[in-house]
Amino acid sequence: MKAAICGKRGSYYVRRLQEALKARGIKAPCYSSTRLTARNGYGPALSVEERSFDDLDFLFVRAIPGASLEQIIYRMDALQVLERRGVTVVNPPKSIERTVDKYLTLSLLEDAGLPVPKTIVTEDFDQAMAAFEELGGDVVVKPIFGAEGRGIVRITEPDTAHRVFKALELGRFVYFLQEYQEHGHEDIRVFVIGGQVVGAMVRTGLGWKANMAQGATATPYDPDSELSRMSLLACETVGTIYAGVDILPLKGGGCQVIEVNGIPGWKGLAKATGVDVPNLLLDHLMAGKA
């Protein structure tokens, strides 16, 4: 079998995938998606330098670097072409498109009947200020495209909202506001591979953010049948092969699905639970090729 990885060469996740693949006799070089070259009318359909991707069995997508809208669309189009020609892209391009977009993800999850945070999205400054009040004057403002908790701020004062929203207006960003919910500085990450829950952890943040990249600590967690059902439905809805589903337990009871990570990290999960995500993922993929 042949495989390659689109990601950051030498990163923890790329190395772990390469080690797991090598143990199965598969060499998986890593390339940046910025170096993809596509052809129409003759082949190869997709390549990097002299390496054709047309004969791959698997292409693992571990990073889509920031870029212009045109560049991002081209990269995703190229991955979809490769998928249509028989290469298993992990995760599928459509699922990556959905999960990198917080608004689209929440809309799909809500349509599937899953509980999600109260959210208002707008491009208009005045509407954003009104949304701040409508959501109770205590909101979390997030970039629609973002990861690891970067760029997320909590706003509790109208004057602060005015200054932050004006800055976002100058940058021509979309306002993405969510009602802040008390959650004890904790959330739950449920990891799903191939329609099965393979592990979960509680992440406890130093502050209100519970992202591992922001210094949170992790402890093993055994999700009940309802959390497992929600996590599996979330992954089915966005179309991922493997994903991390982030669930917020509410102080007053109940919970909300806040995100599905289509290029998920698992370093914290592995440390807390011992779950071997790369090999479990490869077991699932190889079974599908058998």
TrEMBL record:
GO cellular component, one term: cytoplasm
Single GO term (MF): metal ion binding
Presence of keyword Cell inner membrane: no
Coiled coil: none
All copies of domain ATP-grasp, residue ranges: 106-286
InterPro entries in UniProt: ATP-grasp, ATP-grasp_RimK-type, ATP_grasp_subdomain_1, Rp_bS6_RimK/Lys_biosynth_LsyX
Protein name listed in UniProt: 30S ribosomal protein S6 modification protein
